Amino acid sequence: MVKAKICGITRLEDALLAERWGAWAVGFILVPSSRRYRPPEHYASISRALGPFITRVGVFQDTPPEAVLEAMRTARLQVAQLHGDEPPEWAEALRAHFPLIKAFKLSGPADPRLADYPADALMLDGASPGSGQGYPLEWLEPLRHHPRLIVAGGLTPENLGPVLALRPYAVDVSSGVEEAPGLKSPQKLRAFLQTVDNSGSIVETCG
């Protein structure tokens, strides 16, 4: 059963819509250079408003472990996602406290050795995460059978079908369901989640 992960949520109303439409998790961008960044205190208010059956994910890039842990606790998050060039020892330090997703940007076919990184799930993204830039699905083939592979990069409600047919662990979308960076379109969000749900999947929303 495929989960769906939607990144870039900054507003309570978007998180509540995702929860209402069956989202498995929401996540929050904690990368200061991102247009979708908000401080941990902002996300804490959203976390408190959500119910107990939706997971909160924090997205970081090249942030030292102690700073990640402080932000995770302040924002009341449950899963950490790393999107930079973090060394494996940083991941190991974080996994002592939270489950971990590690994202890698693809500029060609996936390197099978990425599966050796110490993480609980592996995400493959486009060269410019959050830009809507995709890549050929053939690039996933070396890691297609990874037990917790998350596919990201250029996904929309309209092009989601071929990705779901691969039956990854999860799919990830940000700009593909937005009106503007950090502002979700209710129509696109619902269409994306319904497409995943209609495939017999579980829905996860991030960011």
From TrEMBL:
GO biological process assignments: L-tryptophan biosynthetic process
SUPFAM superfamilies, A to Z: Ribulose-phoshate binding barrel
Catalytic activity: N-(5-phospho-beta-D-ribosyl)anthranilate = 1-(2-carboxyphenylamino)-1-deoxy-D-ribulose 5-phosphate
Catalytic activity, EC: 5.3.1.24
Tree of life domain: Bacteria
InterPro entries: Aldolase_TIM, PRAI_dom, RibuloseP-bd_barrel, TrpF_fam
EC class: isomerase
Cross-referenced Gene3D superfamilies: Aldolase class I (3.20.20.70)
MF GO annotations: phosphoribosylanthranilate isomerase activity
N-(5'phosphoribosyl) anthranilate isomerase (PRAI) domain segment(s): 4-194
Keywords: Amino-acid biosynthesis, Aromatic amino acid biosynthesis, Isomerase, Tryptophan biosynthesis
HAMAP family: PRAI (MF_00135)
Membership in a protein family: Belongs to the TrpF family.
Protein name: N-(5'-phosphoribosyl)anthranilate isomerase
The species this protein was found in: Calidithermus roseus
UniProt gene name: trpF
